[in-house]
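Case study 2.
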Amino acid sequence: MSLSNIFSKKNRALLRELVVTDFKLRYQGSVLGYLWSLLKPLFLFAILYVVFGEFFKFKSTIEHFGIYLLIGIVLWNFFIEATNQGLQAIVGRGDLIRKINFPKYIIVISGTLSALINLVLNMVVVGIFMTFDGVHLHATAWLFPLVIVELYVFSLAIAFFLSAAFVKYRDISHIWEVLMQAAFYATPVLYPVSYIIGFSERAAEILLLNPVAQIIQDARFTLVTKQTDTLYKLVQNPWLVAIPFVIIAVTVLWASIYFKKNAKYFAENV
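Prediction:
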């Protein structure tokens, strides 16, 4: 899976075609088409803002709570979309795999890139909301793209593992769905970490060792408000702060090995 192979002219053309095709098919027959990629997170945001902003009064304790919440929703939706696209990638392209000989990882990458396009579109909407809400960018805003790269790498690694595992074990889709439902509430998408700190600071520290939680909080810190509780603020220990990055590195290595080991059997099993 060398860079020279990934970025060869032939593979780039195939990757581009798969991304375009996937994006077109996703909204085929829909009246609003691509607008749904923007409207779905906004509808969810509106409901959650009323529940957690008004009833739980989080908006009175967090500066720019609406943007704070929206960024969490957008990044979480990207993670879910990218990993779900990866899970279905190989099985969904079974006919293509049996007919054409090409690097199978391109299919997984194309699915995550399609999700990344949606993320970019959603972040444009977030930017518009930030302007109207009077959010002023701080010097840390330049770090936001690095946070997105971290999220993409982690999502892609999980997508590689899920895509290969789903070929052999179809129960993976149900297991992953249940895990993501639990993870949604265990990740500070809806609530500020300060809410958890009120019960247990140690629980908040453990919660932020989850790479997705760490990424969402870092994104909020760089773009929205310095009030955001990050892992570094809570533990101030570089060894503990490094744990989410170690988890991501191990996931990348493990997923790459697992995918490469099983790729040769995809054509006969899908």
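The radius of gyration is 19 Å.
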